[in-house]
Amino acid sequence: MSTGPDTIEALMDALLGLPGISFRKMFGEYALFLDAKVVALICDDTLYVKPTPGALALVTAPVMAPPYPGAKDHICLE
């Protein structure tokens, strides 16, 4: 299953007003960039944020899961 266009459109609407945010289709799914660095992946209609110290400080009791088989765990935001 891949990410639907409605999911990407909703995320773009919510985030594109922020400086430095962009999206790019990669390997059939999407990457979310902040200042040209990948900070999250959108796979199967789910947002997976890289578990940086800053991101982990913002999420209470994060649910961790890999965005694709064989990947390291990310913060999973459904």
List the helices and strands and how they pair.
Layout: H1 5-15, E1 21-26, E2 29-34, E3 37-43, E4 46-49, H2 53-58, E5 64-65, E6 74-77
The count of strands amounts to 6
Rounded mean pLDDT score: 93
Number of helices: 2
**Beta-strand percentage range:** 35-45%
Strand and helix order: HEEEEHEE
Rg? 12 Å
Structural class: alpha+beta
Report helical residue fraction: 10-25%
**Shape type:** globular
The description of the largest β-sheet is: 6 strands, antiparallel
User: Strands of the largest sheet, in order across it?
Assistant: 1-2-3-4-6-5
Ends apart, CA distance between termini: 15 Å
What do you see in this structure?
- The chain is of the alpha+beta class and 78 residues long.
- It is built from two helices and six strands, in the order H-E-E-E-E-H-E-E.
- A six-stranded antiparallel β-sheet has the order 1-2-3-4-6-5, with helices on one face.
- A hairpin with an 8-residue loop joins strand 5 (64-65) and strand 6 (74-77).
- It is globular and about 30 Å long.
